[in-house]
Amino acid sequence: MRANFRMQRLFIDAPLGRGASLEASSEHFNYLINVLRMQEGQTVLVFNGRDGEWRARLRLPSRKRLMLEMEEQTRAQTPNPDLHYLFAPLKVGRLDYMVQKAVEMGAGLLQPVMTQHVQGKITSLERLQANVIEAAEQCGVLAVPQVKAPVKLRDLLDAWPPGRRIIFCDEGAESQNPLPILQAITERELALLVGPEGGFSEEERQLLHSLDHVSAIPLGPRILRADTAAVAALAVVQASLGDWR
What we know:
It contains seven helices and twelve strands. By secondary structure, the chain is α/β, with parallel strands linked by helices.
């Protein structure tokens, strides 16, 4: 069943099921009652990334309490996407955009990677997770991606399971067409690595090229910003090897 974008969607980290009654957080109370001016008896959609999506009716037992009463499941839970998205943090505004687009494009795990030329940093995993949840709420996503703590590129590669192929966007690639490279990949478990605004260092490129479980792809003839490259790379990987097929 397709997502209903006419109803307000909320992520709630609590078990959901028929007949369950949950008290809304102060943030949700303020948003639904004070910002959206919703009334008792109106309905919203809620999800937790585990139990599918449910229609919940608003009840106001007092002026400062809001209860969400689960009535029926509107969509069954979908599996978490298996594509791992590895990215060098960008500056705050572009980082928020990139994270949101990764959720929309079907990433199942978000892993910040610290490279030599990285220009941004992860100051708060909570902020990163909040961006993930907001994107899931807005785009009808049911399986909320996992967010991992930042790790250095070499440490990531040293501990990497060889069964999952890493596809990395190589700005130094000689060709311009990523499709022949992607079409030759046979592994089902994949990760996409996008570098920083300054690109990978030559040392990092050599390291990546030396690993048998890493494939380098170009992203065409144009120079792309890192956040644009992320969307382009996710699109071409999903279309060639991912869940768009």
